[in-house]
Amino acid sequence: MTDRAVAQGTFDILHPGHVHYLREAADMADELHVIVARGENVTHKTPPVIPDRQRVEMVGALGAVDEARLGHPDDYFVPIADIDPSVIVLGHDQHHDEDAIAAALADRGLDCEVVRASGREAGEEELLSTGVIIERVLQERGHADSGDRPASQPTERGDD
Question: Three-state SS for 45?
Fold first, then answer.
C-alpha cells in the first residue's frame, strides 16, 4: 500500500511559504494529496480572491504535489476518507486543532497521524504571507490608504 500524505489550505496567492509546507508534507509519504478549501468554506479569514478551480490548478502544478482537489462543500472529512492518508500535515500557522482533528478521524474510523509542518524562515525581503503580499501590492500601487481600498479587500489577512 502506498503511503499518502494530505495537506490542505486556501492557497489564495501562492508564495514560498506554501512551497515549503507542501515540500515538507511530500517528504512524509510516497504521495502528496492537497485539498484546496472552497472559497465559501473559508470562514476563519477573508475569503480568497482567486477562484476555486484556479487555486486547485496552481497547487496541482507544483512539483511536490501528486494530486490537488477541491474540498467537499459540506464535510472536510469526505476527501480524507477517499484519499485514506497515513498522515495529515497541517501548516505551521493554520488555525486547526490537531487533537480535535485526531478525535474526529478516530470517530470516523480513519487511522492516520496528524502532524504540524515547520515554518519557513523568512529571508530578507521574502514574503511568506498572502496578507502581507496583498498589503505590499496595495502599497506599491498607491492604495495604502484604506479609503482607496475597495470594500471587498481586507486590511489584514493571515497565511493560508
Answer: coil
Q: How many residues does the chain have?
A: 160
The amino acid sitting at 156 is E
Q: Angle 43-75-119 (CA atoms, 0-180°, nearest 5)?
A: 55
Cell of 124: 530578507
Amino acid symbol at 6: V
Burial of 25 (0-12, 13-18, 19+ CB in 10 A): buried
pLDDT in tens, 45-72: 888 999 999 999 999 999 999 999 999 9
Structural domains for the chain: 4-116 (3.40.50.620)
Q: Is the pTM of this model over 0.85?
A: no
Other CB atoms closer than 10 Å to residue 24's CB: what's the count? 21
The contacts of residue 151 (CB under 8 Å, 6+ apart) are none
Residue carrying C-alpha cell 478516530: 106
The Cα angle at residue 99 between residues 157 and 27, in degrees rounded to 5? 75
Look-up: residue for cell 504540524? 116
For CA atoms 131, 46, 142, 58, give the dihedral sign.
positive
